[in-house]
């Protein structure tokens, strides 16, 4: 029976950190060479070669086994098995990557190899067909995964960590996730799928591909979706649709491609919740969300006349149910030509345009009883509903962040191959801009409950109520606009000496940034502005030795950098105006081992990195320190095939720590020291024609800290996912259970709090998804 590869992974055994690290290092060093070869010749290789295009000059394809860098792949069958709740949720299948996908369908926090970040995804690029959707990995309240949705149009995901990343494309030093679109072929084929869930998800996916004319192919697909959300908002808080078309023309000496993807998708922004009141649990669980039908419409002061000044406020009615999402499009294409005398020409381009907004109720401080604020008496909501003195209340700020973004990328390369040498010259150009308005803070007292209403000003002895938002504590009102342009030249060479391949690359990049921000009491005046012109150099070099047909090793060094992006909150306030260039320097060393056979494979990568210059700001963003960090670790990506049984392993062990200042020696905030995803699956045939696969994913995540001071401990946890897939001729059925044991675990504390945190954000509760599909 044919092996139906279904799962990328999860997990591990909860053991001590040092023994776990030594186990991983030992496995990498031994290369599992003592594992017996199962039903194959010792010199045989994988029956199907994996080709990857990420991390190569111009995006030229190379066998994964021949690559001298750490890259993982997830094909469309594995994506279906994972059944991710969001794009970020799918990235958990990549070793070295820690994902907090508990915030909803978008707006995740993604961390890579211990590189320091306070949230969002400072070191993550999401690309389609080889080019970044947005050149800057993160703006406050917007990271790259927000701008992408997974559907039936995806052929595979490639995830490259470190390696040659700093030299190619947008120069990402951390993780590049490259989503490759499906292309049509000679035969017409397609799929339609209906999905529902125990939280009333209603979704239809479709895709069809085929031939338009001789050597001219198409693929079109997309989805429509709606649901109240895993954390039930009481209305269709998650709504989305997407349409993609991909056209491919095969030329006599190459290929031309053009695609367009239009997306309008958003969902509730899930935030930290109150954990206890004076040591007593609030009773709120992972199914709670504050926003509901009775409180979703709120008047919010927006930039015009600031809340801190002016005689009148510019109030805007906002639907808190909008949550976070993306309403925009990505258009791109490529031209690949094989020229005479072993010359190659490759040009790729993309254009991104749309709105990435964030709206939600953000908690401020701890929950308390109403009576503790008003002398022990009862009160009422603004609608007149009675509230008891023991009713829990909490300050929530209806935060609104509007972002209108545009970006253009072009990557052109010219390559020449000789018998034992290849040289590539490249030019990368990108331009992007943003217009944004923020109104954050603005907190008022609300009844702590789903649908909880605002508390009447007459019921509370606290000035933080009513229209006087200036008295409500921290308020941040921003009206900003910025544009940037980057030009980069790179040169890469590769030579072959027997079984050894040597490669090296250098990137010279210049970025011009203009950014103006009004965030004071006087509107119409830019309180600070940036006119920056910075140049820098990145490089990488590696040696790869495939000393057997099925076994090899590599060593790689790289040195890259991250420019500051449009970020009034973290990057440009204070430090830049005081003379800092805000450039973050990152150096990395990698040692890799590769074993690839018919029945099992193991890719093990040891890594060490150092960073210098990451801005870390206190709450409110008034002052920032410049962190230096270091991390050392091992990534394992393995598969085992035993007849109808398949086992996937995805594990990371790392020691990320701060290397300077009073916090030196502390663990970098919010990143685990070890995590493992273990996914067994078993294929059986029921009756004459029913192919069935049973699978599970078991995850173990170690302790983390919610702050760099390591005062807020986020406890380790385990998570179990279950699933079954059935194929009956062209019909397929899938039942997926996420968090089957309903584990209650935290992914973050309150990032806006100092010291001990009264709030935390839970992983998503148990949910069940059922889908019925038809392939043709």
UniProtKB/TrEMBL annotation:
It is found in: Cell outer membrane. PROSITE patterns: TONB_DEPENDENT_REC_3. It comes from the Bacteria. Residues 1-39 form the signal peptide. Belongs to the TonB-dependent receptor family. Residues 285-739 form the TonB-dependent receptor-like beta-barrel domain. Pfam families: Plug, TonB_dep_Rec_b-barrel. Residues 65-174 form the TonB-dependent receptor plug domain. It is a multi-pass membrane protein. Its main location: membrane. This is TonB-dependent receptor. Keywords: Cell outer membrane, Ion transport, Iron, Iron transport, Membrane, Receptor, Signal, TonB box, Transmembrane, Transmembrane beta strand, Transport.
């Amino acid at each position: 029976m044919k092996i139906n590869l279904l799962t990328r992974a999860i997990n591990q055994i909860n053991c001590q950190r040092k023994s776990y690290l030594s186990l991983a290092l030992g496995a990498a060093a031994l290369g599992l060479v003592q594992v017996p070869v199962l039903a194959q010749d010792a010199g045989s290789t994988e029956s199907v070669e994996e080709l990857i295009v990420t991390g190569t000059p111009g995006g030229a394809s190379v066998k994964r086994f021949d690559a001298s860098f750490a890259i993982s792949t997830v094909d469309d069958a594995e994506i279906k098995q994972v059944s991710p709740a969001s794009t970020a949720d799918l990235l958990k299948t990549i070793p070295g990557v820690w994902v907090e996908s508990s915030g909803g369908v978008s707006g995740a926090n993604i961390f890579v190899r211990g590189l320091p970040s306070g949230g969002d995804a400072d070191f993550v690029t999401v690309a389609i067909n080889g080019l970044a959707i947005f050149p800057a990995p993160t703006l406050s309240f917007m990271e790259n995964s927000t701008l992408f949705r997974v559907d039936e149009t995806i052929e595979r995901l490639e995830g490259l960590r470190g390696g040659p990343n700093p030299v190619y494309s947008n120069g990402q030093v951390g993780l590049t996730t490259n989503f490759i679109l499906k292309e049509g072929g000679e035969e017409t084929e397609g799929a339609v799928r209906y999905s529902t869930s125990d939280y009333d998800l209603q979704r239809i996916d479709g895709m069809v591909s085929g031939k338009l004319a001789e050597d001219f192919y198409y693929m079109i697909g997309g989805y429509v979706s709606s649901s109240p959300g895993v954390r039930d908002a009481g209305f269709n808080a998650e709504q989305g649709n997407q349409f993609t078309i991909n056209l491919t023309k095969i030329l006599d000496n190459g290929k031309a491609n053009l695609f367009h993807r239009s997306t309008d998708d958003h969902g509730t922004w899930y935030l930290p919740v109150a954990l206890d009141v004076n040591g007593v649990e609030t009773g709120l669980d992972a199914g709670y969300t504050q926003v509901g039908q009775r409180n979703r419409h709120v008047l919010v002061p927006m930039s015009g006349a600031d809340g801190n000044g002016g005689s009148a406020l510019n109030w805007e009615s906002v639907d808190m149910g909008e949550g976070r999402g993306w309403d925009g499009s990505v258009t791109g294409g490529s031209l690949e030509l094989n020229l005479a005398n072993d010359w190659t020409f490759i040009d790729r381009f993309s254009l991104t345009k749309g709105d990435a907004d964030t709206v939600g109720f953000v908690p401020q401080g701890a929950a308390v009883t109403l009576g503790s604020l008003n002398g022990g008496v009862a009160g009422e909501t603004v609608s007149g509903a009675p509230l008891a003195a023991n009713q829990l209340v909490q300050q929530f700020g209806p935060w609104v962040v509007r972002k209108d973004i545009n970006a253009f990328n072009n990557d052109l390369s010219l390559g020449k191959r000789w018998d034992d040498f290849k040289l590539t010259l490249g030019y990368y150009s990108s331009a992007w801009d943003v217009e944004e308005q923020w109104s954050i803070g603005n907190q008022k007292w609300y009844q702590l409950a789903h649908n909880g209403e605002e508390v009447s000003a007459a019921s509370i002895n606290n000035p933080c109520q009513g229209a006087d938002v200036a008295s409500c504590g921290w308020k941040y009102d921003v009206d900003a606009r910025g544009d940037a342009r980057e030009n980069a030249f790179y040169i890469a060479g590769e030579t072959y000496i027997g079984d050894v391949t040597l490669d090296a690359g250098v990137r010279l990049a210049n970025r011009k940034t203009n950014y103006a921000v009004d965030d004071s009491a006087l509107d119409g005046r830019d309180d600070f502005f940036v006119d920056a012109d910075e140049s820098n150099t990145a490089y990488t070099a590696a040696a790869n030795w495939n000393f057997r047909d099925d076994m090899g090793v590599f060593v790689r060094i790289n040195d890259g950098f991250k420019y500051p992006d449009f970020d009034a909150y973290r990057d440009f306030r204070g430090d830049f105006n005081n003379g800092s260039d805000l450039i973050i320097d990152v150096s990395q060393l990698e040692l890799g081992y590769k074993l690839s056979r018919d029945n099992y494979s193991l890719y093990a990568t040891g890594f060490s990195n150092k960073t210098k210059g990451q801005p870390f700001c206190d709450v409110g963003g008034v002052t920032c320190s410049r962190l230096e960090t270091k991390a050392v670790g091992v990534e394992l990506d393995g598969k085992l095939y035993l007849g109808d049984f398949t086992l996937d392993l995805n594990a990371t062990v790392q020691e990320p720590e701060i290397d300077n200042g009073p916090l030196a020696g502390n663990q970098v905030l919010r990143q685990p020291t070890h995590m493992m995803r273990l996914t067994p699956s078993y294929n059986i045939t029921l009756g004459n024609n029913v192919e069935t696969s049973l699978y599970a994913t078991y995850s173990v995540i170690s302790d983390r800290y919610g702050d760099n001071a390591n005062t807020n401990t986020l406890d380790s946890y385990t998570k179990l996912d279950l699933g079954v897939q059935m194929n009956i001729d062209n019909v397929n059925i899938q039942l997926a259970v996420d968090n089957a044991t309903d584990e209650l675990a935290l992914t973050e504390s309150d990032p806006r709090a100092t010291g001990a945190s009264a709030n935390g954000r839970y992983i998503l509760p148990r949910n069940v998804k059922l889908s019925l599909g038809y392939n043709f």
